[in-house]
């Protein structure tokens, strides 16, 4: 089966629409375009496909009601706009899908939520249950609570990780541009890239920034396609029906195949930034990065930043390069007393609770491997 056919026949699919496809330049909901997209998704649901819809647009839809003309630079105002816009957006989806007799469920996620094992399972269970009940989940980042440190920031990668979470067969990214181009499509001479099969197809392509209200531009879309590991089509909302039918529109990103990281590890690698750094000696780098071991206090030579137990932190070698990321078991302030000590010594001197690893290998992802793994 060709990858276009996989999209046409997919039993489970994630569709993501960007802010500019859903809102007007005045910072309000574009009801007509939302209705048109809902009609396409409802038709696919009627064919028996399970769909999860990732919708951006909360911030963009909140601008008009707050009297703002452009995306505010500060996080607090963006969060306020998202709070206003998300409600309006979801109300519109509810009534628009009701025209087709469909019920929708709102799912707001943060990157932080998804890394922690229990939260991650929770989200997975909720999405599965919504699908089992015939409800269309509409996902967005929980913008009002996500701070810069724990913020996912763009919905392209969120959509790719949601596709993992629900084991989707295909992902469709809908933007204001109908495909990936060899350069900024507003400039003359830019040509459509019909297929991306690997990094060599991206050589020489200028991946520019976002449009009027979007986030991430082409960079995050290409990264999402790398993370997804399933066929991904990038096109505009007007071509959604044809893309879902497997027609040769937009850009098709072919999956690379090969071994896959778990969804949680993908989140850790691609959805987080380190809240601090732990410096490792050469033996610890070798153990963690090449032998899949947990990080023990004995191999730690330094600590930077002010993180708390449970936060994601970057693990760096002597040259400062980040080799891995993991969820740390200690607060930053505790680590200097543990550094360079054996776990046996720590257990004897400080008590049995200090026998635990700095980072358990299940909570650790080697970044070079994460890169290799996705394409
Ligand atoms: N090489 C490229 N091919 C296509 N679009 C590009 C390219 N480089 C930059 N862009 C810009 O990326 C924008 C889409 O990204 P973004 O604004 O983040 O969209 P969305 O809101 O749909 O997520 C387009 O408006 C386009 O101008
Ligand atoms: N969560 C944000 C969306 C961020 C985002 O990725 O936007 P976009 O690039 O338009 O998909 C919002 O709803 O405004």
From TrEMBL:
What is the uppermost EC class here? Answer: transferase
* The keyword Kinase is annotated on this UniProt entry: yes
Q: Where does ATP bind?
A: 16, 175-176, 215-221
**Protein name (Swiss-Prot/TrEMBL):** Glutamate 5-kinase
Q: What is its main location?
A: cytoplasm
Q: Which gene encodes it?
A: proB
Enzyme Commission number(s) of this protein: 2.7.2.11
Specify the pathway.
Amino-acid biosynthesis; L-proline biosynthesis; L-glutamate 5-semialdehyde from L-glutamate: step 1/2
Compartments where found? Cytoplasm
Single GO molecular-function term?
Answer: glutamate 5-kinase activity
Top-level taxon in the UniProt lineage: Bacteria
Does the UniProt entry include the keyword Metal-binding? no
Q: Please provide the record's keywords in A-Z order.
A: Amino-acid biosynthesis, ATP-binding, Cytoplasm, Kinase, Nucleotide-binding, Proline biosynthesis, Transferase
Classification via PROSITE patterns: GLUTAMATE_5_KINASE, PUA
């Amino acid at each position: 089966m060709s990858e276009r056919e996989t999209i046409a026949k997919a039993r489970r699919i994630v569709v993501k629409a960007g802010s500019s496809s859903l809102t007007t330049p005045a910072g309000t909901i574009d009801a007509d375009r939302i209705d048109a997209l809902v009609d396409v998704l409802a038709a696919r649901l009627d064919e028996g496909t399970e769909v999860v819809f990732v919708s951006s647009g909360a911030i963009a839809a909140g601008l008009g009601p707050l009297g703002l003309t452009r995306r505010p630079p500060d996080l607090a105002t963006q969060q306020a706009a998202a709070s206003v816009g998300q409600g309006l957006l979801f109300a519109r989806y509810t009534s628009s899908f009701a025209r087709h007799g469909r019920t929708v469920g709102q799912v707001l996620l943060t990157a932080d939520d998804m890394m922690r094992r229990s939260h991650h399972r929770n989200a997975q269970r909720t999405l599965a249950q919504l699908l089992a009940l015939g409800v269309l989940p509409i996902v967005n980042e929980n913008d009002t609570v996500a701070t810069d440190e724990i913020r996912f920031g763009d919905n392209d990668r969120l959509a790719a990780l949601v596709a993992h979470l629900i084991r989707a067969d295909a992902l469709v990214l809908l933007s204001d541009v109908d495909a990936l181009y060899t350069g900024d499509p507003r400039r003359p001479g830019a040509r459509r890239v019909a297929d991306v099969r690997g990094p060599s197809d991206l050589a020489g392509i200028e991946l520019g920034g976002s449009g009027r209200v979007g986030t991430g531009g082409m960079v995050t879309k290409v990264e999402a396609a790398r993370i997804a590991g399933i066929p991904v089509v990038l096109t505009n909302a007007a071509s959604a029906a044809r893309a879902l039918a497997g027609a040769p529109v937009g850009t098709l990103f072919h999956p690379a195949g090969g071994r896959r990281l778990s969804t949680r590890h993908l989140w850790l690698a691609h959805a987080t930034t380190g809240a601090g750094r732990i410096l490792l000696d050469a033996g610890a780098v070798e153990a963690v990065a090449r032998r899949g071991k947990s990080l023990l206090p004995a191999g730690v030579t330094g600590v930077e930043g002010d993180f708390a137990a449970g936060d994601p932190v970057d693990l760096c070698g002597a040259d400062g390069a980040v080799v891995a990321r993991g969820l740390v078991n200690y607060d930053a302030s505790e680590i200097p007393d543990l550094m360079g000590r054996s776990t046996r010594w720590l257990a004897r001197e400080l008590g049995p609770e200090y026998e635990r690893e700095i980072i358990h290998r299940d909570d650790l992802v080697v970044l070079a491997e994460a890169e290799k793994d996705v394409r």
